[in-house]
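Hi again,

Forgot to attach this to my earlier email, sorry! This is the prediction with adenosine-5'-diphosphate bound. I've pasted everything inline since the attachment limit keeps bouncing my files.
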Amino acid sequence: MIRKVLVANRGEIALRVVRACRELGIKTLAVYSEADEQSLPVQLADEAICIGPSQAAQSYLKADRIISAAELGDVDAIHPGYGFLSENATFAEQCEACNLKFIGPSSQTIRMMGDKVLARQMAIKAGVPTVPGSKDTIIDEKAGLKIANQIGYPVIIKAAAGGGGKGMRIAHNAVAFTKEFRTAQMEAEKAFNNGAVYVEKYIEEPRHIEFQILADSYGHVIHLGERDCSLQRRYQKLVEEAPSDFLDSSLRAKMGKAAVKLAQACHYEGVGTLEFLVDKHGNFYFIEMNTRIQVEHTVTEEAMGIDLVKWQIRIANGEHLTLEQKDVSCKCHAIECRINAEDPDNNFLPCPGHIDFYYAPGGKGIRVDSHVYGDYSIPPYYDSMIGKLIATGDTREEAIERMHRALSEYIVHGIKTTIPLCKKIMLDPTYREGKITTKYMETFLNRISEKTKVQK
Ligand code: ADP
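Structure tokens for the complex follow:
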């Protein structure tokens, strides 16, 4: 029985977990770095323990300190959130060894699906289409070149341990390949302490469409439809929505079935996401699995009317998933804008600092998941996301209008944010027509910068 959960994260996701636990009657213990003493999850949790200095490597990434805090606080389970240790199989294993329930799949499943090459192999075995590419990691550029020549250019070189868009390089021809291969290896080594890379066909202007999975520990797996996360900058998502207007019901059913099959094949438990690329002809290819709750889980929650974080905790508590696939249907259209403390006019430079005044929008169909407030100082040590604004509507058009209205009400004084940029996106005719591929942001930013030059 889970009576008390340690929240091994910070920011809006820590707050999200604290809130879900409170509603389930479960106590929470927040762990925090020195920089986060004043943060909202720390103030709202039942208990809090400081686990170290501000740098993540000295606090949120210190598994031993988190486990000590769990023992001191006498908790039954650890919720890892996203990022930090959430996809670290060794940490999940340590929790298992200490009899602490890691809220997520088993360490074995994380180890397998967290490695992109092993996950690809698993998908191929399960009969789920993958992007044409290498079967294994590639040690040297000669072997890579051979495969790239076989697949045909352009190709993308990716880190096996990849995440956050790091360690990915595109090569348009054999000459570029050697250079890009070495750069990808170096980037991967630096970011993940693991230089292993592999090669895939580069799909031109695809949609990024991912399926949300919910699985209990008794082998019952369902999917909760898709999220369209094609609106990205440098492989990082900025605006997400559910459902995707690119999928018809037959493609949705096919992809959903493939997602469930793969989750079953890896004995999945909890919430998880299977990411796919879809080309303009409707061919879909599995690219990776995220074995944790995702930032954009909120759009699925709103579109489907299901609380994913509560289900995640209930499943970890040994409950049966009582939902059947036929019970799940889309109730509305949902869009999420990531509100980042960044300056879009200055190459998205992170803008940590003091928030002098803060006012969050509300009203029908608006949800704000954020840990910040007026007079709060955003520390410079972590990622720049300070909140998520979610708008729903009966139709995509209504959700867009509502999002625009809410963005216009949102006030964050003292720092630069992505709010003005998201407003421009909501007004963009190309976005409104739903013509969004992973290339959209690049062309959109070029268009608005040309417009500014002309105006000057
Ligand atoms: P990460 O784990 O670093 O986020 P992913 O494998 O999830 O990396 O890919 C992130 C993004 O990179 C995708 O959404 C897509 O925009 C781009 N991408 C990845 N693989 C390919 C590919 N084979 N062809 C074209 N774009 C790709």
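The chain has 15 helices and 22 strands. The two ends are 64 Å apart (CA to CA).

That should be everything now.

G.
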